Amino acid sequence: MSISDSKATAADLAAQAGFADQSHMGRALKRATGFAPAALNRKIATEEAFWCYRLLGDRF
């Protein structure tokens, strides 16, 4: 599976992005954004202030 595959799991994404595991990726994402992956995805989907993340096209 590729990172852009909508059926890829979080563990798949983490492995392909070079993280040791899913938790490692989640901690790095929270450190970079201030939000856990699920919270960030909710905000991207529902809050206008997160419009710039929609440009990336990928979710975490």
Describe the structure.
This protein has 60 residues and is an all-alpha fold. Helix content is 55%, strand content 0%. It contains four helices and no strands. It is globular and about 30 Å long. The two termini are 15 Å apart.
Extended strand count = 0
The outline comes out as: globular
Instruction: Profile the largest sheet.
Output: none
In whole angstroms, how far apart are the ends? 15 Å
- Taking pLDDT < 50 over at least 5 consecutive residues as the criterion, the unreliable ranges are none
Strand content: under 5%
Run of helices and strands? HHHH
Look at the structure and give the mean pLDDT.
86
Quick overview of this protein structure:
This protein is mainly alpha-helical and 60 residues long. It contains four helices and no strands. 7% of the residues are buried.
Give the SSE layout:
Blueprint: H1 10-16, H2 22-33, H3 37-46, H4 51-54
Give short descriptive properties of this protein.
single chain; 60 residues; 4 helices
